[in-house]
Amino acid sequence: MKYLSFFSGALGLDLGLESAGFEPLLACEIDKDCKETIKTNKPELPVIGDIRDYTAQQIREIAGLTQDEEVDLVVGGPPCQAFSTAGARKSFEDERGNVFLKYLEIATEIAPKYIVIENVRGLLSAPLKHRPHNKRGSEYPDLGSDEKPGGALAYIIKFLEMAGYGVSFNLYNSANFGTPQVRERVVIIASRDGKKLPYLVPTHSETGSHNLPSWTTTRSAIESLSKEDNAECLEFPKKRHKFFELLGPGEYWKHLPKELQEEALGNAYHSGGGKTGFYRRVPWDKPSPTLVTSPIMPATSLAHPDELRPLSVAEYGALQQFPKDWEFKGKTLSKYRQIGNAVPCGLGSAIGKLLSSHTSHSDLIAPRDFKYSRYKDTDDVAWRVKHNHLFEGHNPDRKSTQGTWCLSLDEEQQILTIIKS
Q: According to its UniProt record, which residues of this chain constitute the active site (predicted)?
């Protein structure tokens, strides 16, 4: 099966898809170092830059597709910062949000059998339009439906369904797919045949339930790496060493002696939240916490279970399931960032296997009552019920292709104009 990859990064998702039998025809990536990583490891693969600089037809030509040749899959994880709960979210009003819309336009114009979108958990609650907090309150109008949580995802689903695709989505923990890391991501799967595909089939479970192996541990992923393998590594500031020396595998600042906790955290000690990332050592016998773009930031430390250092570049790669010989280009900080932003290969493989099974008319079915995430209302069924209020005031006679969403006349016209342009 042939596919086009967008926002390709260091190709983590792509490696998973390839392991499931998919063949990439093109990669699209704007980051300079990521592009070099792609070219180094996949020298035969065409690589383009900013998606906004290309039409769907130009992309098809660069990928070597003939006029009538069909694409099986378009896949991409548009920049997630616009939806991240960690920062000031602006959703589709953010420039990166507009890139998301460009991806939807390109994908639906190419009209592959499947469209896959991967993104952060924040997409589940992001509004379509962001109203600044200083313009909310009793003296301002109530939030409109497009300013309420969930508006961005609702728009995405409507867009895909207006183009004739059946849509399913869920929040998936990559540890359930063999990744030695707890990492939760939203995966939207759209099928051109109008059918809603089942959820991804897990290969592992936290406790070994459902006759599946238990989660893969950090130890199994990194213990065999040599000192030479781990040579490329950042360093913690010396002032933090005395605190890390007191902590064991899987521990963090709360395991320090009480008389040292305030000194260790400084002003952050009096801030709210659990602060679980401060002075955090990765556990040996559980999956790693979610990898971030740098392991040495005070609030998101990722220290080796035993040694007085952060995780190395090689350990980062192993915890994202990259092959040991995968070559990351750029400076050390860039390599951490590329790996930290990647989609684990195991999740990509699960996506590929599900799509292949649907194509062969033998859908894989996940175990009943399997718990994909620690959060509630993250699958498409529960999410739609919870966010039904987003559609109040819509004309019930104006429905999408699947008859699921009620759109206003303006909304429908806007989407149809984009799809037909």
A: 80
DSSP letters, 39-101, are: HHH-TTS-EE--GGG--HHHHHHHTT--TT---SEEEE----TTT-TTS---BTTSHHHHHHH
Q: Look-up: residue for tokens 């086009």?
A: 4
**Cα separation, 4 vs 244, whole angstroms:** 44
Identify the CATH number of the domain in which residue 390 sits.
Answer: 3.40.50.150
Catalytic residues: 80
As given in the structure block, the two tokens for residue 182 are 């707890």
Q: Cα 377 to the chain's mean position, in Å?
A: 18
Residues 227 and 141 in one domain: no
- Which tokens go with 348? 């990509």
Residues 208, 233 share a domain: no
How does pLDDT run across 284-298, given as a tens digit for each residue? 999 999 999 999 999
pTM of the model: 0.90
| CA distance linking residue 363 with residue 197, whole number of Å | 8
- Does 294 lie in the same domain as 161? no
Instruction: Report residue 342 as tokens.
Output: 């990647």
pLDDT digit string, tens, across residues 351-401: 999 999 999 999 899 999 999 999 999 999 999 999 987 755 443 333 343
Q: How far apart, in Å, are the Cα atoms of 240 and each of 190, 243, 271, 309, 405? A: 47, 6, 19, 10, 53
Q: Could you give the angle at which helices 95-110 and 151-162 cross, rounded to 10 degrees?
A: 20
